[in-house]
Amino acid sequence: MKSLITFETFSKLDLRLGTIVKVNDFPEARKPAYKIVIDFGMLGQKKSTAQITASYNKNSLLGKQIIAVVNFNPKQVANTISECLILGFETEKGVVLLQPESAAVNGMPVK
After folding, report:
1. CATH number reported for the structural domain that contains residue 18 in this entry
2. What are the 10-residue block averages of pLDDT along the chain, 111 residues in total?
3. pTM tops 0.90, yes or no
């Protein structure tokens, strides 16, 4: 377990619901990854990268709603800029993305 944080620290994260609208291969990455564009509704579209090629193919990701942190500083990953962090967890079979149980409006904050 990581060290404890305050609720105030946690509340600084902006977790939002978005829909994956574009997925491309990312051959420049050190580890197999995709370049992903996510629609966050009123927040607009944001780019991300994700090392999830072993768990998901490009077609299965299109239209999938996911949860992401949208208020990180942009990060350079190889030759692209990642603007948000898609959330998931590692299993024996690979990464599983966090998703809503039912469809909801893009950009909704996680509460």
Report:
1. 2.40.50.140
2. 94 97 96 97 98 96 98 94 97 94 96 88
3. yes
